[in-house]
Structures are given as structure tokens and as C-alpha cells.
Amino acid sequence: MVFSSLHFLYIFLPMVMLAHRFAPRRLRNGVLLVASIWFYAWGEPVYVGLMLFSVAWNYLTGLQLGAAARHSRRRAVLAGAVVVNLAVLGFFKYYGFLVQTLNGALGLRLPDYQLPLPIGISFYTFQALSYVIDVYRGTTKPQGSLVDFATYITMFPQLVAGPIVKYTDIEAQLRKRGATLAQVGQGLERVILGLSKKVLLANNLGLLADAMRASPKLSVLSAWLGAAAYALQIYFDFSGYSDMAIGMGRMLGFTFAENFDYPYRARSVTEFWRRWHISLSSWFRDYVYIPLGGNRVGAGRHMLNLLVVWLLTGLWHGASWNFVLWGLYYALLLILEKYLTGGALSKLPAGAARALTLLLVTVGWVIFSNTDFAAMGRYLGCLVGIGSQGFADRAFMYALRSNALLLAFAALCCGPGLRQWQLKLTGRLPLLAVVLFAALLVACTAYLVHGSYNPFLYFRF
Amino acid sequence: MTERRANARPVARNTAQSATRPATRRAAPQGRGGVHHAAPERRYAILKWALLAALAVYTVLVVGANSARDVDFSVIRSAIAAAPGVSELKTLDENGFQERMDATPAGCEDWLMVGSDDIMDVSELMIAKADEATLDGLEAAVQKRLEAQLAVFRSYGVNQKDLLEGATLLRRGNYLFYAVGEHADQWEDAFLACIR
After folding, report:
1. Which of A211, A238, B68, B148 makes the best surface tag, with the fewest CB within 10 Å?
2. How many domains is chain A built from?
3. A142 and A69 in one domain?
4. Tens digit of pLDDT for each residue in B97-107?
């Protein structure tokens, strides 16, 4: 089920919220669990089994870690759990990629099963891993209730596209939580805000990005316009989803950590990754980067650590070489920033540093969005005038004129100013908030009634 | 990547917990229905082995249900040609495919598409054999085609709308199958019989 569908918004969500609200406290997790399985089964009935395996496996691992006496045994249990989690993720997500690569490189004829990707597998596997590692480290206690643990893994607001919620962050809320009417209102406001980002901004920006990409001949400016439109689309798409997840969590009494912090205002690539998909960056920092030694090692080892982390981050996003390249691109940028250009960058005026970062990130999205290397090469070439149809053309002028308002408004929404102004205004005039968000909901509904299929981009990860 | 060293260290939550060895930092399971603390770790290990066995069976079933025999495409062509209703439709060439799907079949290893000449008849059938990336693109093209057709017939073509809403779109191995029409189920059976 997709958040930005009428069925979800007007049937599933109200039913679940009411059932959760009026259920006795001890049954609330059960209600949420059943709803989450229903939500997942709507689009992926076959893979519910895989998700339930993950729940049962990691639940038992937690208990086993709690019961194991010897340190060596605990280590073995953890290693086994990590291997199985990664093997499941590897088989269902990366098997086809690996087989195609091996067949292509070595001329083998290994069977490629072309299994559909289980939605959300990367997200729930990482949540489960964070739990077992935290139990091993002693950061948290093993969860004794299967229902509570299953609720944590399967919770529908963040099940299919994050944010990746650490068990320690909601451990207490799994046992006891409540949401006042004001919190439910705030949550609903956040849901509508996220929905608007997705339906009103991301989907329309996606049309522009697709049109530019589909064009057989691009001018330099058309290529940049398309790349900028995609950069804005993916931001509003993913941060919109995160807003909806956080909002729904709040309505249910959970507090999920923020996943975005106006990333396009970053003054360096390092800062960008502190502001973009924060839950994923934090996960890799806590469970891969720091255990590898982080930056408290020699320069060579530090570079290797960055390379490993970004290779994995790239692969996490998809089973395709362009994601590997995208990860390496960021590893290189971060290494350069740390050891070569960081000092100079910090001396640049804020506007120039932001523009440079935005430029690098936009180029990164071109790599990210093109699984076909030939198409990627052509597009990157057009950005610098190689193989392009001149510097600017009519198609660019037409696209710019037709989308000027959308682009300007989207750019405005990339900073905190508009949101702060809205909060200030609606804080003074609460009725205005009701009118504003009701209008946004009506506008989104109108789009959804007449709109077409609009999956979230991050569903495929 | 930034780092906060403190995060890497366990937070002592229990006064009995030692800060040095994870083994000494164990704590009783929490929550409702908590498992007895003295429960042998072996029991959990046995349950996990059983789970792994279940996962193996599940994986075999999923792979079996999704995989397809690599058959000569002519076998599929013959089976589809003999299926009911197909002879009434026109076999489309590359241009016809492109017109309807707004996508090219150029990247496919092989493909077939039939459709009606009558613009009020929504019947069409497409089968393509290709690599994953090409099939991804074709699947998206089929989705768009279906939406476009639904947008055309939603307001006045009751039968057409029903047929479009009942369209079959499935992937098996290297194949993509898409069918709309009264005989779509029989076409699907004919296709699946070839690749199983």
C-alpha cells in the first residue's frame, strides 16, 4: 500500500488510528502489528513470510544473547545472526546482480531467478541488525515480548521506506505511549505536509525530470534543468515520505528521529550527509564506520574506512553498478574534503559553498538515477557540453517558462524560511492552520483522484 | 562522515553491568510474557535452526514460483497462436509496439504483441523476454499504457474499463507477460504452461 493513495489515506489510516486509539493499552501493539502486516500484505503477500522470518529470527537472537553466558558464545550468536540477516538481504536483493555480473564477466551460465525485490527489506533488515548488535553490546535489553518486537520491526509508518528507527529510540514507547489530541493534530499536520511534498511537488518535478531525460538531444541548460528537477524531486519525494512516517508515528504516540535537515543548504558534502537520510548515515556511522576505527586511525586507514562505508552505502541503495559508482563518488568527495579541499571550502562565502555543494550533489544524482552507464555518460557529457545540442535551446526555454513557478516554490521549500514563517503565522492564528492544511489535503486528493500511479522513489531500496 | 565516539560505547543501564565485557552485561528479557531468565540458550538455538529450515523451504517455494524455464520463444509463439481469441487480433510489428507502449522492444531478446485494430476493443497481449533492466522499463511502460487506457475508457466504456482493471501483468524469470481481454486468463495459462 502506498501512503499517497486514496485507499491508504481515507480507509486504512483512519481505521487503524481509531482502532489503535480505542483499543485497551495492552492490545495496542497487537492492533498495530495486525495493521502493519495487512499494510505490507496489500502489495507483497508472498514476502510477508520473509518479514515474519526476520522478526522471529532476530527476536530469538535477542533472547539467545540474553541467555548466553560466555562471551565467545555471544560473539558466535551475533556473528550467526548478522550472517543470516545479510544472507537473506543478499539473496533477495543482490542475487540477480551478482549472477548477472559473474555471468557477464566469466561467461558462466548461472541461473538468474529475477525475484521481485521484497519491499522494505533493506530498512527492516537494518532495524533488526541494530537491535541484535545493541543487545550484544549491552546497550539494550533483549525484548521478551514477541508482539512488541514484531511491532518494532513491522511498524507500517516506517516499514517500507524508513526512516530506520533504532530499537533503543522507541524501546520505552513500545511499552507505554500515548498521544494527546494536540500531538495527534501535530502528527496529522506533518502527514499532510509530507503528502503535499510528494503529490504537489515531487510528482510534478518528476514529470519535468523525466521529460528532460527522455529528450533525445539536450542542450547544456536543459541537462542541468533536468538534473536540478530530479534533485528536487528525490528530496521532496523522500523527505515527504519521512514526514508522513514521522507524523503517523506521532499520531500513534511514537517519536521518530528526524531524517532530513534541509540538506540542500549544506555548505559541504560532509554536512550534506549530516542532513540527508540521517537515519541511514547514523546507522552506518554507529555499526560500520566507528567499529572500523572511524577517523581515529591513520590517514590511509581512515580513507579505507570511508571507502568501505560509502561502497556499502551505495550498494544499500540498489543492486546495480551505478549505485556502487555513486558510493565511490561520495567516498572520493569526502576524502578530498577531509584531506585536501576542506580548509579552502570553509573559507568560501556561505552562498558559494552552498552552490558548490549543490552542484556536486546534483551531479551525484545523475549517477544515482541512471542504471544504464551509456545513458549516464551521455547525460554527464551534456552537463559539460559534450554531445549536447548547444548551450540553450527552445526546449529549455519552454520547460523553464512552464515550470518556473514550480521550481521557484520548490527551491523556496528547500530552506527553513517558509516553514518557520508558516509556524509563526499559524501559531498566532490557529484557525489559519486548519484552513491551510485542509486546503493542502483537498489539493492532494484532487491530484490523486486524477493522477496516475506514483510510487515513492525510495520504495525500491 | 561524522562520528560520535560515545555512541559506540554501551550505556550501562544496570548497576550489575560491567563496562568491560559484553558477557557480563546481560540483562533479563523485558516486556509482557518475558521468557524465563533461566531458559536454556540451547532451546533458542534449536528454534533458530528450525526457522532456518523453514526459510530454506520458503525460499525454494518463492524461487520456484518466480522462475521460468528458458524455452525457445517459438514455443511460446505457437502456444499463444493456438490460444482462444488470439487469431482475431493483429500481430504488431516494432512500430505497432512502439505506438501502443510508448517504448521500444529493441532491448528484448524476443517479444510478441497482438492487439485489436478496433479502437473500442482494448484486447491486447504482450510477452517479452529480456534482461532485468529492460523488463523494468517495459513494466513501467505497461503501467503507463494501462493508465492511459483507463483514463480513456473510465468515463464511458464500462466493459472496456472492467477488462482493463482486470489486466494481467506478471514477471516470471526473464519474461514479462501482459494481457487485457476476455481470454486473458487462458492466454496466461498458455504462457505459464510453456515456461513451467
Report:
1. B148
2. 3
3. yes
4. 888 888 888 88
